[in-house]
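Our collaborator T.R. sent over the components below with a one-line note: 'Predict the complex.' Nothing else. No constraints on interfaces, no templates requested, no preferences about which chain binds where. So this is a plain run: every listed entity goes in together, and whatever single assembly comes back becomes the starting point for the next discussion.
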Amino acid sequence: MAARPVPLSLRPVTHWTGWVAAGLVASLVLLPLLAVFWRAGGGSLPGASDWAALRFTVLQALLSALFSVVLAVPVARALARRRFLGRGLLVTLMGAPFILPVIVAILGLLAVFGRSGIVNQALGWAGLPPVQIYGLHGVVLAHVFFNLPLATRFLLQGWQGIPSERFRLAASLGLGPADVFRQLELPMLRAILPGAAVVIFAICLSSFAVALTLGGGPRATTVELAIYQAFRFDFDLGRAAVLAVIQMTLVTLAAVMALKLSRLDGFGRGMDRPPRRWEAELWRLRVWDAAVLFCAALFLIVPLGAVVWRGLPGLMDLPVQVWRAAAVSVVMALSSSFVAIILALSLAHLALVRHRIEVLGLMGIAVSPLVIGTGLFLLINPFSDPARLAFGLTALVNALAALPFALRVLVPALRDISRDFGPLADSLGMSGLSRLRWLVLPRMRRPIGFAAGLAAALSMGDLGVIALFADPERATLPLEILRLMGAYRMDSAAGAGLLLLMLSLLLFWIFDRGGHRDVDA
Amino acid sequence: MKPHLIIAALFAANPALAQTPELTVYTYDSFISEWGPGPAIKQAFEAECGCMLNLVGAGDGAALLGRLKLEGARTNADIVLGLDTGLIAAARETGLFMAHTIEADLDLPLEWNDPLFLPYDWGYFAFVGNRDEAHPTSFRELADSNLKIVIQDPRSSTPGLGLLMWVRSVYGDEAEGLWEALADNIVTVTPGWSEAYGLFLEGEADLVLSYTTSPAYHLIAEEDDSKVALPFSEGHYMQIEVAGKLAATDQPELADQFLRFMLADAFQSVIPTTNWMYPVIMPEAGLPDGFSTLIQPETAILAPIDQADALRDLALAEWLRALSR
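Returned assembly:
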């Protein structure tokens, strides 16, 4: 790989905050892992069924990542070049699927694709045989439901990073849609797609409940379930730790590969004018974009609608504990988001000169939560009651899990800024805080808002390690939903699921809009 | 008042506070949840013991045992409550438990004389379906039917493991064949009971593996009599939930007092409508009304505790082979 030119502006900047953040992230992942190894007295080799689980896990994660990013291309392009009523709402709703607790989302999907779901009822009406959702295709379908919106948002950000002057120039040169795609959009995609795919691959690699529930049986055993089995069934901590290391290695390999594939050319700076897409003003492209958006919206909104519909009756009289849990979750989401943004900004800054550091950011989702939780337990237990620290630990681990998403958003944005404006800022002698205040923050507001919203919403919906330490006084909303379901209270659980969806979306929207304020485009 | 007197008063007050004895009970999460037995039991026991009852939740029964193994003899727990019959052998092997001294005449369908572990509730596994549908009366009939069932994964769920042991106990070496015959009936396998039951209620399956007591919840809490448990002619596998006293406890008398309280009316009468299981001592007021409508299996099945571990590994291997084909 050819050495990339290091922007002049970066040389004088010290990166100690980045290294501190990197050290923190590494120790939060590695120390618990080492603690599990230490307690087990070494690793033990996975068995034949574990390798089968590994094969299935990699296959479904690859397919899920591939379908998510490929399908996201037309959707993000349509969103980038069209303005229509409800566009903002659609973009916000894109945040909804991957913040839902898994079981709530699965029930929403089943209301559409399940045995007595909408699709099969329609097929029955038309006299056609029913379709089965359970199997590898069901797993991939659910993962695409979760991650297509995420991929779309990543790509949309890429499109927004192309200065409108480029499209103006293309139009004045008389370039058609195919030329614009080749000259402007393809280079952007080459820079963004591999990274987005790796994040989705990593998150699907530790899939557990989705894969098992929709996979239809033990053929759909994932590594995470194998880790579960090692813990619960055989109490073989060594095997669990080795499996966690395999998970981590796979994600690292994929991430390094993606970094090599990514080409970071950049488009140069623009005047921040709202883009106009002359070449796309053909009627057949309009129809195509409308059809793409309609299908994507349908795919996302109908299952979400089912979650809303199912939750409404229960929402009216939720037990008081659910509201308390909701308050705990909101505080947790805000703390996690804050920590995640600080970590991500520090790491993103460092990643400008040390590209590989981005791989480290992925570790938070690459290692099994069960292994991290157990390791943290082993580390803390000799000194203190882990339940007492459950809130802080969960917030921290959730922040770690949000880190790869925040980095995906912040790194490209920061890279563009320092390439496009770094030399100018240098020549003006802007550095340190004034540079942050006048150059970086104003231009980063949109990505920071998006990343903070993502982190908050993710933390809100994540069960996290709190389930392992279970502090009865400070249950989070996802834990409370599990408890309601475990106590047969499915209607209340659905209501609480809807409350969670609304709160997460609200947090996401506030942050995301905060980033957009008066930067309208 | 002089400052040093205030300080003295503060210190004088402290030992009295510190002397309130504290009993720590590890249990599964749904026991301590607001809808479980925990809150009522904590209140009742604290009223009689002059102590503080500290209920600590940790996942489910298997996670509970895992946590205990991680902590070893250094554990803070005085009592572990919530292991079931499938976990007793492994719990005994840890050597962390000591014999209890309670003698009681328990209302169990079979004899109980384990020196370490004392039952506090029990139930039967059963398939639950909707009333007014054609229902199979045995595993064979179920396998031959077109009915769709949803079950739990034995590797991550207690009922899932119960079903495995049920089939193995009834069919012995033919269990694998039965699982192969059942394969086309299984819609899917979920990580836990909640997901399976939720899927069933949403109409994804005709039947779900649960307990004979499940219809009582719908009847009592929702006044809905549409759910029924299916009696199987081969008999029903039992789940007996037990508690044990840790050898390293620093509150041995209080621990014994708790185990006695566990069999008293204040504890046992809470069980039916919070844990939705049968109490091991009939409450003075009898069982709640809805329980009289439940099916009463004629044959209770339970694998011998000493063989449970070996049987479990064998049964899991068969299950994986049969359903991975």
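Summary for T.R.: The first strand of chain B starts at residue 22 and ends at 27.
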